[in-house]
Amino acid sequence: MNVTLYLGCLIKSFFPEVEKAVKEVMKRISVEFEEPKDASCCAPIWLFSLNKNAWLRLNERNMKFFQSVVVTACDDCFASLNDAFKIISERNSIKTPEVKPFGKFMLENIEGKKLKFSIKGLRCAVQHSCHLLRPARDVDDAENPKVVKKVLEKLGYIPVSYEGELDCCGGLVFEERVNRMLARRKAELLENSGADCVVATCSHCIYQLKSVSSIPVLHLAQLSAFSLGANPEEVGLPDTLVRKVVKP
User: Fold this and answer.
1) How does strand 158-160 pair with strand 98-101?
2) Residue 219's domain spans which residues?
């Protein structure tokens, strides 16, 4: 399988450990990928709300640099590209690339892969991505999302349910007071869940929750890469978690 890997601006700019983890996963599950060097930001929801035509033209340009399958490391990027390509396809009667969020891609490709490590008894609270589920995009159950939880289970980890599991973290809320209020409220719910870490597949969620959470906030790719044999330090796993490492 050969795919286009679209990391998104935040991961490229702020989270090199996540970039490393995503690429390690691709390598270790034998998926050849290329990065679109000339592609630009996909301009998530904010540009759509300001100028829909500019958003469409931007992603029509991006489409020229993509192969038939695009894997996104950020669910906001997935939502933007997926929605734009659907409109472009319907307007122009053309076939557009299939866009897959990282969680779904992992669920489809992790089966049968040899795992090298796990973190014994690691309890993970999933921060579900709003723009993956609302509106529903045929990726997961919007009322009871399970994709990321299923991947965690296949990797040997324990997903936990908690109050406010579907609540927004406020990552793309422009009004600062509301943004901070939502972030603190979600962090408190996560901390009260009994989890050892937070697992997300949206770079905005990771950026937002890292600023307020007292427990580690990880991208699903970091745990995936580690379980497949990547160096835990290179993919940014905290020592407090790695000390509990066991072989499956």
Assistant:
1) unpaired
2) 114-246
Q: In CATH, what number is assigned to the domain containing residue 46?
A: 3.40.50
Predicted confidence pLDDT, tens digits, the chain (248 residues):
679 999 999 999 999 999 999 999 999 999 999 999 899 999 877 777 788 999 999 999 999 999 999 999 999 999 999 999 999 999 999 999 999 999 999 999 998 898 998 888 999 999 999 989 988 778 999 999 999 999 999 999 999 999 999 999 998 888 999 999 999 999 999 999 999 999 999 999 999 999 999 999 999 999 999 999 999 999 999 887 877 766 66
Q: Token digits for 113?
A: 């892969």
Distance CA 99, CA 86 (A): 10
Kindly tell me the burial class for residue 219, based on how many C-beta atoms sit within 10 Å of its own C-beta (0-12, 13-18, 19 or more): buried
**Count of domains observed in the chain:** 2
